[in-house]
Model the fold of this input.
Amino acid sequence: MTPARPYDRLKRALDIVAAGSALVVLSPVLAGVGIAVAANLGRPVLFRQSRPGRDGRVFELAKFRSMRSPDPARGLISDADRLTPFGKALRATSLDELPSLWNVLKGDMSIVGPRPLLVAYLERYTAEQARRHEVRPGITGLAQARGRNALSWEERFALDVQYVEQRSLVLDARILLETVVGVLRRDGVSAQGHVTMPEFQGRGAA
Done:
């Protein structure tokens, strides 16, 4: 267990200022994306799902929808079937993540930290991999800056734990810069042969 650091309090203060300011400044963008989602995918505009946060505590993550609703009658079953060109563009630009700023403001998340994954994965982590939950999850993180979904699960979790151990203001600033560059280049949006990432199956999974 990594002990709390003086930076953690500063980090929370910075998160509140950054998320609150971004929600105000980007409100026209949020409204525009919301209208576009409604026009292209229908309602609801937001995707909500339970995700584990710090210490494994579950919260409700909010994002813009990027997929059609499941509809077996129309053949909309898999993620690949349900993801539209509009949804792909939304994900590639990371605009679907903007509502998560509200999660940051509430304290569920941080701007920078390991990405919140599925609740079902909690029982599949090794003790070392589970250390990713020693800090708040983030909208972006070291794994997103260094390869996003193009990384294997083992690589991704190793970077998550590295972040837990080395977190600092300088590292967060570097991650944010690398994330912006990666989004502009549209690097690592999906794993090879998958819409995003294959399901994490557990110990030793690639």
